[in-house]
Every structure is written in structure tokens, then in C-alpha cells.
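User
Here is a favour to ask of a fellow structure person. I am asking you to supply a protein in sequence and C-alpha cell form. Please set it down just below, with no commentary around it:

Assistant
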Amino acid sequence: MPAGNQCDTVTWRGGTPVSSRFDDPYFSLADGLAETRHVFLAGNGLPARFRDGFHIAELGFGTGLNLVATVLAWQGAGVPGRLRYTSFEAFPMAAADMRAALAAFPGALAVAGPLLSACGAGARRFAVGPADVTLVAGDARETLPGWPERADAWFLDGFSPAKNPELWSEDLMAEVARHTAPGGSFATYTAAGHVRRALASAGFRVERAPGHGAKRHMSRGILKDAT
């Protein structure tokens, strides 16, 4: 992962990586890959919206599972061209832990070789199949405001708002909206009221949707047209 950032330390709970810093799992204990597909892909209307140059941005890179699931979805849909994927991460996971986490999903691990090699070498820009990936190191509250791009879809995948409130603040959600292309979307596993209100205040049309597995609800939304 990018040099100069402190790696998160990981403990393991039934084969699922848990952040020692935030005491929160990196993905669902039930089935992390199914969760990613339900929450972040389907929640953003993907793969139906994919097109050449489509740009996904993410808060919280974690194990890289969301990226790998996205690549698999793109390939499965037979979309021509290239995908852009930008992820903001303050506390990267060590490449060895990333490999161990992805090993739970053989289909994901099969395409993750370039990701693991790049992260092991500390690369910030690399390709994984059709995806051109940029990892932005550091606190998103500092790095996102100066980011010169806008995303077509956002994966909001920080740790639980109760344990990692920095990634769910009203100011940061406003920056997410400011860095969203017209008609762009977001999806997140959390249905916390203060998060939904912050995203609505930022300009998204927010709705609560069925969550993954035992989780009753998640949130998704579309950026409102400027008036």
C-alpha cells in the first residue's frame, strides 16, 4: 500500500478480518462477496449503468473486495472499454492480510493477483483487468476536497458510523456530493439516520432499501438535478 501510511492491524473472527483499530469486520460475516454485490453494485444500479470510462469512487478500500467484485461484474457483463476506480483509504490493510481475506472467495482471488502485487509494492496507480485504479492515501476529510474528479457512483464503505464517525460526517458527505457527476449515485450498507440526513442535505435523493442478509436496511441515492 502507499508508503507513509500506517497499516491497520487485523484480527480474524471465523475467517473474517476484523479491524483492530475500529473493532469492526471488513465485510459481512455471512458472505462478504454477496454483500458487496447487493449493497454496492445493485445499490448503484450496476452493472446496467456500466460504460466505457465509468468512474467509481470509494471511501474505505479495505480488503479490495469491492474492487474485485466490480471487476468480475464488468467482465461478466461483457462491457467494452475501461473502468476507472478511485479509493480513499487512511489505514490500508497489509497485502498479506488482504490476500488471506480474499482467499475466502476463490472467484475473487482468481482476478486479484495484480491488486495484491501492486499493494505489496506500495503502488498507488495500477490496473486490475479492465479497471484503472487509483488509491488516495490519507484522511478523506483532507484528501477528498482537493480531488479534481467526479464519480458516477460512490461506494461508501467506511467502518460503522458508531465506530468510525469521521467517514460519515455532514461535511464529508457534502464533499461526496460535490464530487459526484450529474445523475450520479451512492450506496452504503448503513441506514443510520444521521448519515441519510447528511446525504439528503448534500443534495442526494436518499432512500432506505432492504439490506443484505440479516441486516434489515441499507441506503442508496441519486444526486438531484441542479436547480
Summary: The chain has eight helices and eleven strands. The chain has one domain: 10-223.
